[in-house]
What we know:
- This protein is of the alpha/beta class.
- Helix content is 37%, strand content 10%.
- The strands form 3 sheets. It has a 5-stranded mixed sheet, with helices on both faces. A 3-stranded antiparallel sheet has the order 1-2-3, with no helix packed on it.
- Helix 1 (4-15) packs across helix 4 (187-196), helix 3 packs across helix 4 and helix 7 (225-244) packs parallel to helix 9 (278-301).
- The longest helix has 24 residues, at 278-301.
Amino acid sequence: MLTTHLLAIFLISAIVSHSKALRFPQELYNLSSNQIFIVDNLSRPPSSSASPTPLLSPAVSSPLVPALFIIGDSTVDCGNNNYLGTFARADRPPYGRDFDTHLPTGRFCNGRIPVDYLALHLGLPFVPSYLGQTGELEDMLHGVNYASAAAGIIFSSGSELGQHISLTHQIQQFSDTYQQFVLSLGEDVAIDLISSSVLYISIGINDYIHYYLRNVSNVQNLYLPWGFNQFLASTMRQEIKNLYNTNVRRFVVMGLPPIGCAPYYLQRYKSNNGECVEEINDMIMEFNFFTRYMIDELLHELPDAGIIFCDVFQGSMDIIRNHKNYGFESTANACCGLGKYNGWMMCMSPQMACRNASDHIWWDQFHPTDAVNAILADNVWSSRHTEMCYPMNLEKMVFSQSLNNLV
Length: 407
C-alpha cells in the first residue's frame, strides 16, 4: 500500500484539481465539462493549424505523480518572462497561434512546449509559471514552472537581452516553494510531495548562444570548448545535488539540442544548402557527453535518486535526418522570421510566419515547432520514436519508483 503521507498528497491534489491553480491561459481542463484536450499523434503530431481534439478523459485517469516542477530556459518557459523587463519575450502573435487557446502565452513556440505534453502523460494540468501565479498553496500543488528565456547555467548568460531568472535563482524559487509546502502542509507531507514529484531541467544552451559563441569576457581564450563544457557540467552536477538536498528524488535532465542546425547559425555561418555548422554541434555533443557521464556518477553517489538524461541532440538529429518519415518538409528554414533560412531576424509579427508550421522543424531562429516538441516529449516519456533517455525513459522511472513505494 502507499504511504500515508503520499495518500495525503494525492487527496489534497484531488481537492484542488478544479481550483484557481488551473485558471491560466495554459490551463488544460475545461472546467465546465471536465474535458481534457489531447492531440492524438498516433504516427506524428497533426497539423498545427488544427484545433486540439476534446476527449472525455485525460491521458491517465489519475495523476501518476503529485506534481511536475520545471527549471530551464526558453525551451520550457511558459510565461515567466512576460513579467520581466527583457527582449526575450513571446507574449505577442504569432507565438501561441496553434496553442490550445490560440493566444500567445509566453511560450517560444507556435503551440505547446515539451513539458505540456509530459504533463499530459503524467495526468497533470499544464504547469503554471512561477511569476504568473498568486503564491497560494493551491496554485502550486500540481507543480510550478520556474523557467526563464535567456537564462543559463552561468549567471550572466543572456543578460544583454535584459532581465531573466538564472539557474541559481530558479533553484532558490523552488526552495521557497518547498518551504511554503512545509509551512502549509507540514514537513512530512511536504517531503513526500517533493520526493514523489518530477523535476525537469532544460538549461545550458544560452551559455553557448549568449556567452561562449559571443566570446563574452574573452571566454574563448580562457577556456577551450572541452574545458568550458566540463565547467558547465560540473556546475550542473552541484546544482542537482543542491536540489537533492531539498528532497528532490526524481530528475529529468535534458541535454542540449543541435543549435548548429538552427536557422540563426545557418545564415550567420553562410550555410549553402542547410548543412549544419559542425563546429557548434561538436561542442554541444561534447557537453551532452560530459553531462551523461556526470549523471552516471550521481546515480552511484545518490542511490535513492532517480535521474535520467535525455539526449535532445540525438533525438533532434533523428528528426532532421529522417524528416520525411516524420512528415516534415523544411529542415532548415524557420517558419517565422526574415532573411536567409528566416534566421536573420527574430519572429516579430504574424506576417512573418508561414501558413502551416507543422511541416517545419524550426518555428523561429532557435526554437522548434509544436510538432517537434511532441515527438521529443514522446521520446522522453516512452522512447516512442527513438531511444534518447538513459538509463531509462520517464515512464519506466515513474512506474518503477511507484512500485518501490508499495509495501
